[in-house]
Backbone:
């Protein structure tokens, strides 16, 4: 097993090579050769990736509420982006499969994503938070940038405000028209108002989310 080549791609040299070896071991290999699989490291890596991306988003968007941050994180911490990351660092060339899985499983997105999570977990145990963060920044760079761009595009309130400022030199206000649900899971109804007229409506689990949806509704009618 050529661990040195994968270390070069990861730009990280393991002190404990067994961690990397285990991270690259699929359960089908374990069933045949009785070596530990990467499933425990996968569990850890998933949690580490979730935490690191959460920190990135928390710092990058100080005005975003919990719902917005959760939506952005879901676009990054997911099977598709982890499978892409695994392909970027060529994990499919290094995963150890049992004979029954070696051909069919090599590029399954779910297996690739799980293996990437395991590698993140292994790097964290071997080198700590900063090493795991560096790996994620390198491997998830495109997905993070895309999620950030999508969030910028989805700032419907700013776009609606820009529209009315450019067209008429006026502004939009937002009014909460209703609230329902328990305190731990409320739902707000909001109207976007321009020149005394309701131009859009929306609802959400926070006032900010409802305002964005009302602005989106207004923009849709304008377009």
Residues:
């Amino acid at each position: 097993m050529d661990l040195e080549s994968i270390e070069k791609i990861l730009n990280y040299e393991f002190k404990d090579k067994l961690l990397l070896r285990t991270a690259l071991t699929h359960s089908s290999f374990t069933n045949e050769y009785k070596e530990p699989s990467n499933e425990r490291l996968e569990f850890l890596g998933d949690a580490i990736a979730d935490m690191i991306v959460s920190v990135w988003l928390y710092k990058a968007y100080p005005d975003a509420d919990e719902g917005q941050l959760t939506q952005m994180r879901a676009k990054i911490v997911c099977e598709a982006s982890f499978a892409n990351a695994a392909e970027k660092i060529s994990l499919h060339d290094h995963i150890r499969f049992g004979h029954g899985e070696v051909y069919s499983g090599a590029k399954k997105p779910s297996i690739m994503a799980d293996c990437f999570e395991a590698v993140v977990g292994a790097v964290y145990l071997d080198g700590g938070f900063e090493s795991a963060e560096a790996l994620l920044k390198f491997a998830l760079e495109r997905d993070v940038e895309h999620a950030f761009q999508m969030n910028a595009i989805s700032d419907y309130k700013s776009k609606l405000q820009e529209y009315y400022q450019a067209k008429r030199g006026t502004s939009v206000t937002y009014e909460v028209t209703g609230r329902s649900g328990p305190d731990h899971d409320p739902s707000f109804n909001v109207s976007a108002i321009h020149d005394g007229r309701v131009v859009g409506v929306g609802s959400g689990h926070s006032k900010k989310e409802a305002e964005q949806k009302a602005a989106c509704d207004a923009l849709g009618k304008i377009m």
Observations:
- The chain is about 60% helix and 10% strand.
